[in-house]
Specification:
By secondary structure, the protein is of the alpha/beta class. The chain has one domain: Rossmann fold. 35% of the residues lie in helices and 10% in strands. It is built from eight helices and six strands. Strands 3-2-1-4-6-5 form a six-stranded mixed β-sheet, sandwiched between helices. The structure holds iron/sulfur cluster.
Length: 244
């Protein structure tokens, strides 16, 4: 897929953007990341929604709902992609249901081609133990690639604080694999800033976070009490492949 000139934002005058119309999407991502550095996350999100909608979506894991709460304030109805892997905790599905209802989200529940039962039949049970990369590929990476087809830019709740592998994430970056502009409005926020935003705004949270889970993913691949290290704790794996 190629991104054409119509997705290139005009000048972001409020923060001093100059004319960006001649930039390639990759140059645009680099320039926007530089010029938006230090802007509050909600302003970064506003910029992205204004510039790229309707070809813009947000992804949400439903660990917390900070980013979708912000989006609901900026532009109600912006598409929110939730990868419903079939392996989520009931609490995660409950958080998605609550966020959809309370914030009035345009929630797109994206499911893999194969149900868990069909995957078990084709690849054997507990593929996540034997080949988690293949399992994540079929249940997360491929479904997201297909769900992203209508969009030229996307926003994620990714933060540098979450993991070593996310330290180099930027506010706005060119996603080479997805051939799209990736916006990470919360990238520089600390755990404390997230907690403060949740408290100030009464933001919905996955109840597992208050039960000892520091990071919430699929149930078979998430252990309690270990923070981000509780994801694929017994595997040589730290990311599902969506971000790195
Ligand atoms: S996190 Fe685990 S269960 Fe979920 S898709 Fe990846 S390997 Fe499969």
């Amino acid at each position: 897929m190629s991104i054409t000139a119509d997705v290139r934002p005009a000048a972001y005058s409020a923060r001093g953007f100059t004319d960006l119309t001649d930039l390639t999407p990759r140059e645009l991502a680099e320039r926007a990341g530089y010029e938006l550095e230090g802007a509050p996350p909600i302003e970064v999100l506003r910029w992205a929604i204004d510039r790229f909608s309707p070809n813009f979506a947000i992804t949400a894991s439903m660990q917390d709902t900070v980013l979708v709460h912000m989006a609901s304030k900026v532009r109600p109805g912006v598409p929110v992609i939730f990868l419903d892997t079939g392996y989520h905790f009931a609490e995660t599905i409950g958080t998605a249901d609550a966020a959809e209802s309370v914030y009035g989200l345009n929630l797109l529940r994206i499911r893999p081609k194969l149900t868990v039962a069909q995957q078990d039949e084709a690849y054997g049970p507990r593929l996540y133990e034997r080949d988690p990369d293949l399992c994540c590929g079929m249940r997360k990476v491929q479904p997201l690639q297909e769900a992203m087809r209508p969009y030229v830019a996307w926003a994620t709740g990714l933060r540098r604080d979450e993991a070593e592998s996310r330290q180099s994430a930027r506010l706005v970056e060119w996603d080479e694999k997805k051939n799209r502009v990736k916006v990470n409005p919360l990238v520089a926020w600390s755990d404390e800033q997230i907690e403060a935003y949740i408290a100030e705004n009464g933001v919905l949270m996955n109840p597992l976070l208050s039960e000892g889970y520091g990071s919430v993913g699929c149930e078979p691949c998430t252990l309690k009490g270990l923070g981000r290290s509780g994801r694929w704790a017994n595997q040589n794996k730290t990311e599902c492949g969506l971000h790195v």
